[in-house]
């Protein structure tokens, strides 16, 4: 079993569209959407959820009113200003402080310094993860709650479950739709992968972000290849990207031209290689062949 992670240095490069086409082209695979902060692969694949589970990625503090002695130490020590005395509808300030769960970062300082142990520090649900079936095969995906953190832990969980399915069913590939950028979710997406495919676009910002994310993959010693999407919008920059990438040890996986068919395929909730057999589908098919060749 080989794990292929498709990432990008920034959002909007066409990463998920490429993954959806890989899903249609690959044999014996399981899909994993690890862009849990803004998951969208399900919009193309229309998964049927077979099972769902809660995700608890951290803890939140809660004051037990009956035990609180109103010493105020928790308010003094909370650097996130998450603890305060609430003002009631009558305009009177309450005697016991409360913790705003939105502001609470789960650091646990208040829990540790409370002299009478009146603060509970409890796990809480901040997302869900799913195992689904699609017309392309099984898929593991997730949804992180609004403004929630610890997405790296959820990414790791999604990848682990996808690998379990691949091992159980004897599948050849785990194809991962990773997160954009270079932060914690990306690190969680690529660590231990067999191949990283970076999708970029022919702009100076795309070039800059490509080199940032390829440096991250190099740090973890993961083989990396690059696909330039919408390359014909700026052939000169495309050439520069491929030349400089080669110097940095990143192999060019191919180019995908700009085509309105990709947008039309998204509207129809399908991959472009299923929607049309035009030149853009040939481009993506060639990229997939290069991915398979690179991974061995």
Describe, in plain words, how this protein is organized in 3D.
- The protein is an alpha/beta fold and 296 residues long.
- The chain folds into two domains: 2-56 and 127-295, Rossmann fold (3-Layer(aba) Sandwich); 59-124, Alpha-Beta Plaits.
- Helices cover 37% and strands 26% of the residues.
- It is built from eleven helices and 13 strands.
- It has helices spanning 15-25, 41-45, 73-77, 109-113, 151-169, 184-190, 204-219, 235-247, 260-267, 272-275, 279-295, and strands at 2-8, 29-33, 48-55, 58-63, 83-84, 98-99, 119-124, 127-134, 137-144, 173-180, 195-200, 224-229, 251-256.
- A nine-stranded mixed beta sheet has the order 3-8-9-2-10-1-11-12-13, with helices on both faces. A two-stranded antiparallel ribbon has the order 4-7. Strands 5-6 form a two-stranded antiparallel ribbon.
- Strand 8 and strand 9 (137-144) form a beta hairpin.
- Helix 1 (15-25) crosses helix 11 and helix 5 (151-169) packs parallel to helix 6.
- The mean pLDDT is 93.
